[in-house]
């Protein structure tokens, strides 16, 4: 096993810079998820760690060794892709053992490593099947088995579950996580799906436009997003954003565009008239407050365990999440409030957390 360290890593294609200086330390045995919208540079970063993509600037280390100029096969990594990239004419056992055969490892040793990986993945009764005789989930397991038998220092995953249907994806993400808990191999996992990131990661790296936005444990990002991008990207249903003006009368308030006021926490580094964005998670909005914001309910979504509804507030669509089955109806006026301590306050212009 090994740590992975990126120092000022850059990537450009011609004049187009797709990754700005990335600094990142991944600990030995850690499971780190790179997450961000399509095109933000996740795969490029992963492929640079794998050695499949040249580094334009900066340094990548696996353990203590600088690997910028080390060939992929000598980096002691194993990669699992979205397209399982299995050899169609080889059965499961041969697919899993193939890289070891290339390394001229003894047949009996290959068989025992394939056997042990197959047992771990529940594939032992499928060893003689061809890939086309397997389901999507089983194929993805073979792809993981192929990585496991190599006993690499680092696993690199690029959206490995994206080809599976929703239910299987939920199942497989738990499997990958359980596997990591057994093997404890340093893992870098790329996904565009923030729920996958939240459920699987020890630490998440949120990226946008080739720039790392924030690095932290899942709940750190959820509870203290560094900027509007992270605040909007992490969490489902997403955080509500209300543009407002800061007013310090008796206590600190955010004045919304329709003049309604929302009490803010004390001690914000703001002065009268400063423009801010107030972030409000749907589950932190309380219904039927005595003294609160008036809003009009537009759509109600009963989910059984919980209820989600959308209300118009100061011309904006606000999403509210409540446990149980509150009796709200479309067209109805409601009064909403939130604990000042649960609010997220951002500078309107920079989008940075205050
Ligand atoms: P992600 O995996 O986050 O969806 P990628 O790392 O694949 O994003 O791509 C990041 C950016 O780099 C994208 O804007 C993409 O168009 C660009 N890009 C990727 N490969 C090349 C290439 N070979 N030449 C030019 N631009 C590229
Ligand atoms: Mg990608």
| Overall radius of gyration | 25 Å
Q: Approximately how much helix is present in the residues?
A: 10-25%
> Which structural class do the helices and strands define?
alpha+beta
Biggest beta sheet summary = 6 strands, mixed
What is the tally of beta strands? Answer: 20
For the biggest β-sheet, the strand order reads 6-7-8-3-9-10
Task: Describe the 3D structure.
The chain has 354 residues and is of the alpha+beta class. It is 24% helix and 34% strand. It contains eight helices and 20 strands. It has helices spanning 42-50, 92-102, 107-121, 136-148, 166-183, 194-200, 218-223, 228-233; strands spanning 4-13, 16-26, 31-35, 57-62, 65-66, 77-80, 154-158, 186-191, 203-208, 211-216, 240-248, 252-255, 261-263, 275-280, 286-287, 293-302, 306-313, 316-323, 333-337, 344-347. The strands form four sheets. Strands 6-7-8-3-9-10 form a six-stranded mixed β-sheet, sandwiched between helices. Helix 2 packs parallel to helix 4. The mean pLDDT is 95.
């Amino acid at each position: 096993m090994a740590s992975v360290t990126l120092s000022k890593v850059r990537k450009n294609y011609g004049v187009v810079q797709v990754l700005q200086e990335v600094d990142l330390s991944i600990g030995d045995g850690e499971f780190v998820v790179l997450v961000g919208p399509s095109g933000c540079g996740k795969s490029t970063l992963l492929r640079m760690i794998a050695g499949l993509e040249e580094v334009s600037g900066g340094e990548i280390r696996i353990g203590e060794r600088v690997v910028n100029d080390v060939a992929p096969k000598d980096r002691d990594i194993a990669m699992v892709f979205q397209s399982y990239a299995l050899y169609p004419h080889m059965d499961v056992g041969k697919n899993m053992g193939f890289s070891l055969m290339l390394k001229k490892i003894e047949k009996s040793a290959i068989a025992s490593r394939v056997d042990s990986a197959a047992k771990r993945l529940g594939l032992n009764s499928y060893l003689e099947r061809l890939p086309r005789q397997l389901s999507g989930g089983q194929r993805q397991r073979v792809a993981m088995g192929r990585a496991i038998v190599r006993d690499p220092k680092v696993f690199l995953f690029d959206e490995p579950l994206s080809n599976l249907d929703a239910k299987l994806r939920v199942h497989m993400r738990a499997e990958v996580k359980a596997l990591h808990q057994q093997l404890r191999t340093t893992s870098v996992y790329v996904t565009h799906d923030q729920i996958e990131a939240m459920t699987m990661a020890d630490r998440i790296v949120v990226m946008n436009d080739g720039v790392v936005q924030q690095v932290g444990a899942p709940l750190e990002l959820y509870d203290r997003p560094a900027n509007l991008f992270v605040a909007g990207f992490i969490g489902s249903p997403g955080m509500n954003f209300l543009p407002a003006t800061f007013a310090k009368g008796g206590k600190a308030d955010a004045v919304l565009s329709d003049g309604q006021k929302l009490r803010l926490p004390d001690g914000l580094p703001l002065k009268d008239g400063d423009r801010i964005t107030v972030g409000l998670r749907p589950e932190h909005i309380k219904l039927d407050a005595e003294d609160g914001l008036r809003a009009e309910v537009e759509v109600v979504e009963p989910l059984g365990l919980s209820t989600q509804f959308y209300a118009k507030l100061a011309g904006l669509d606000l999403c509210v999440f409540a446990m149980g089955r509150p009796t709200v109806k479309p067209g109805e006026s409601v009064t909403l409030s939130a604990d000042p301590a649960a609010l997220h306050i951002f500078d309107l212009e920079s989008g940075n957390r205050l």
